[in-house]
């Protein structure tokens, strides 16, 4: 069973989770400003208090909110932590008055987001990345 909190992790915890899940090698010094610039951060912690998942929202606070870095530790996947984090982020965004919540799904994770209420953008209005 995981416990959710809206208290951001430490930058060291964020960096360790990032690295352990294959998201890349980022230092705590790199990730600290990302945490500080987040609008909302939701963490999932195990019974011992260890960080097992997290997600962030970035937003203008009025029109749009974007889910970024929804990360769940490999050993905690499949237990519902990701869905709980995502639901908490969406609920908090709506509570703050921003109903338009968007995201870019990581490769291979589209089905997870669809199960949790997100729909792909139409083919004539896809999300894009700068190459």
End-to-end Cα distance, whole Å, is 40 Å
Question: Which parts are unreliable, with pLDDT below 50 for 5 consecutive residues or more?
Answer: none
**H/I helix tally:** 4
Main beta sheet, described? 5 strands, mixed
By oligomeric state, this entry counts as single chain
Q: How many strands appear in the DSSP assignment?
A: 5
The neighbouring-strand order within the major sheet is: 1-2-3-4-5
Strand content: 15-25%
Rounded to an integer in angstroms, the radius of gyration calculated over CA atoms is 14 Å
**Global geometry:** globular
What string, H for helix and E for strand, traces the elements in order?
A: EHHEEEHEH
In percent, how helical is the residue content? 25-40%
- Structural class determined from secondary elements: alpha+beta
Q: Please tell me the overall pLDDT.
A: 93
Description of the structure:
The chain is of the alpha+beta class. The chain has helices spanning 11-20, 28-36, 81-95, 110-115; strands spanning 3-5, 40-45, 51-59, 64-72, 100-103. Strands 1-2-3-4-5 form a 5-stranded mixed sheet, with helices on both faces. Strand 4 (64-72), helix 3 and strand 5 (100-103) form a beta-alpha-beta unit. Helix 1 (11-20) crosses helix 2. The chain is globular and about 45 Å long. The termini are far apart.
């Amino acid at each position: 069973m995981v416990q959710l909190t809206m208290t951001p992790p430490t930058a060291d915890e964020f960096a360790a989770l990032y690295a352990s899940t294959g998201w890349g090698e980022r230092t705590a010094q790199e990730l600290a400003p990302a945490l500080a610039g987040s609008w909302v951060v939701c963490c999932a912690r195990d019974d011992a208090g260890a960080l097992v998942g997290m997600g962030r929202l970035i937003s203008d606070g009025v029109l749009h909110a974007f889910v970024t870095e929804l990360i769940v530790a490999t050993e905690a996947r499949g237990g519902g932590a990701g869905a709980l984090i995502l639901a908490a982020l969406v609920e908090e965004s709506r509570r703050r008055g921003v109903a338009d919540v968007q995201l870019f799904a990581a490769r291979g994770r589209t089905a997870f987001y669809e199960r949790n209420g997100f729909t792909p953008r139409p083919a004539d209005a896809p999300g894009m990345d700068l190459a």
